[in-house]
Write a structure and sequence with these properties.
two-stranded parallel sheet, 15 strands, alpha/beta, 11 helices
Length: 338
């Protein structure tokens, strides 16, 4: 197979490239040159936000599939899809479950209503409309039968540049009392970036099209299993102190950002982030590795970087200030455990 990856040097794109190389595929990447691509690829330079950003793709070269992880203005997706529609078999766009109209109910599938106001050729607006516009651009260029819309949820694993799992690992490494937001059995829904990549390549080989919610089934891991795994590899001196959700929220702590991955049970946010129907992806072959493997491999990668993970400048800072954590733990001393 001949694969073109638009990006391919960071997180999801890099995982796709490495998975494709592992299958013996011929891989070309178009990137801006900010990071070195994996060894073994054909590297092309281009800034998709520039007027001539796709010049390196001019010509008559063909690919079996294109993978695009773009998450800003939809216009570059539209331009790439138009340029490549007669030279590639399939367009795989890594989208997001953020495209669903808020707030999707627990158990929502790919047929749930999506947000309005998105356009294939639009400039940058907000994350949700940008991703939906990217979907529309892919379908405009390749048609419904040759476009694959991967509506990913929470993505974790090596090369993470968002700051969620790396923050928890570094927090465990500091040791001491750790605010663990309960309940322990809170079901999570996420996908290891490598499992995401393998599923996409399988989907290309199978000729799949349309939209897929792409995360593990709900409860593949719980909050307790996730934090226990983090402590096991990174924090032998960490002491998990489980705190009830109302105590966490009462301390003014923001779910998802200050305490990455966690959102309180029973909330619209939890239903949207951790309770989607992913049966379509599972039935089409999605396989999800154990949470302990995702955590251990990410810690190994993070240690190789000296503990400091790369961070996308267009994503907010994640994590809880130590002083805020200490005050919340003090307030929770007399509260019932989760």
């Amino acid at each position: 197979m001949r694969l073109l990856v638009l990006g391919g040097t960071e997180f999801a794109g890099r995982a796709v490239v490495e998975a494709a190389l592992g299958r013996g595929w011929e891989v070309t990447v178009l990137h801006r040159g900010r990071h070195d691509p994996p060894a073994g690829v054909r590297s092309l330079r281009g800034d998709r936000t520039a007027p001539d950003g796709l010049a390196a793709l001019a010509g008559d070269e063909t690919w079996d599939a294109v993978v695009d992880t773009w998450s800003a203005a939809p216009r570059p997706v539209r331009d790439a899809a138009r340029l490549l529609r007669d030279r590639a078999g399939r367009y795989v766009y890594v989208s997001s479950r953020s495209v669903y109209a808020w707030a999707p109910p627990a158990g929502y599938g790919e047929d749930a209503p999506v947000i309005g106001g998105a356009e294939a050729g639009a400039g940058q607006t907000d994350y949700a409309r940008d991703k939906r516009g990217g979907e529309l651009a892919a379908v405009e260029g390749f048609g419904a039968g040759r476009s694959l819309l991967v509506r990913a949820g929470l993505i974790l694993g090596p090369y993470e540049n968002v700051g969620r799992l790396p923050w928890w690992l570094n927090r465990m490494a500091r040791g001491g009392p750790v605010l663990a937001p309960g309940p322990r059995d809170l079901p999570l829904q996420y996908v290891d970036v490598r499992d995401l990549a393998e599923w996409m390549l399988d989907a290309v080989e199978a000729g799949l099209s349309g939209a897929y919610n792409l995360t593990s089934p709900q409860g593949h891991a719980t909050m307790g299993e996730f934090l226990d795994a983090c402590a096991a590899v990174a924090g032998p001196d960490a002491d998990l102190r489980w705190v009830e959700p109302d105590v966490v929220l009462g301390a003014g702590i923001e779910p998802w950002t200050q305490l990455p991955v966690w959102v309180p049970p029973g909330s619209d946010l939890h239903d949207a982030l951790h309770a989607a129907d992913v049966s379509r992806a599972v039935e089409s072959g999605l396989r999800c590795r154990p949470v302990a493997e995702t955590v251990a491999d990410t810690w190994r990668w993070l240690q190789g970087l000296g503990g400091t993970a790369p961070r996308r400048p267009d994503r907010s800072l994640k994590g809880l200030d130590p002083e805020v954590e200490a005050k919340a733990l003090a307030a929770a001393e007399d509260a019932p455990t989760a």
